[in-house]
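EI: anyone free to look at a 356-residue chain?
SC: sure, send it
EI:
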Amino acid sequence: MPRPGHPWYRRGRSMWYANVGGKQTALGVTDESDEAGAVAVYRRLTESITSEDFLPNPTHLPTPPPLDSGLTVQVAVVTFLAKSALRGIKQKTVYDYRLALNPFVAEFGQRVLHTLEAGEVERWADRPHWSQSTQNTYLGVVQTLMKWAKVTVTIRRPAKESRGADSVLADEQFEKLLAGIRSSPRGGAGDFKPLLILLRETGARPQEIAALTIEQVDWPNASVRLKEHKTRRHGGERIIHFSERAMAILQAHRERHATGLLFPTKCGNRYKAATIGDRVRDASKRSGVKATAYGLGRHSFCTAALVAGVPDAVVAALVGHKGTTMLHRHYSHIGENARVMKAAIEQVSKAKGKAG
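SC: here you go
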């Protein structure tokens, strides 16, 4: 067992971890022998939180009081979290809100919320031990809080690091990765390999495929309409469409399992996100192919679709994005470059034909 308040090394993820704000947090230190470096990062993280937990646990939130424009940051945040929980927002989302807002309350807790200016909030997030993606996420949560409290302030957020192009796998890399998947402790690779293939065929999120059941699939129309999905609270619907290859895999597993999960673990349970990530990392080490669950599936699917000339809006709809913003942030430059190159090569080909 790791010592409370002290980092520990997780060999399964090749990373130092620590409990920060009540959550196991990766410290970004990968060298197992660099305990001193891990401790230094941990101390920098805890400086913003201190030993006091400023916010109540989301599962024990008080009944929210009426909104008051004179609320302090701490009271406003507690009220915001309580109302978020009552609105039916997922517990994990409320927990993530709390994780982001804890250091915010540590810095500004007794200030009246509407007196905060954009510049001081931006400076609060500008910390060397927070990546641009972390700063973007935390400032986004603060913006959500401000919007809920009807406080008009425009906060500039640094762009998140792109996670699209660098994580894409070519077909031969993917096949090599599959060969690196080893048997589970109970023998056999189970349904893990076909699960990864379906991720690559559909561009779906790992947990969308992991939770898929035989009864959910609209077999005649080669699709599935999900009731629980990431954008449900925005009023959108999530439909996953299946290619012929994907349908062949699904049909084989329908015959194999008859009912329930299409891709169960050896124990018959649903693959959890952490398990999928761990097994992909293990296969990555064994095969020598750097890969992530999102990279081999979702990111590779989006890249291939854009390179093939599929319109951005269609690709966004296929992978369940509400709009094209996320797609443009991570992938559109790939698609646009590919279209330019394809158009250029066609012009060269036509010119050569005329010359001949």
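EI: Residues 58-148 form one domain.
SC: 👍
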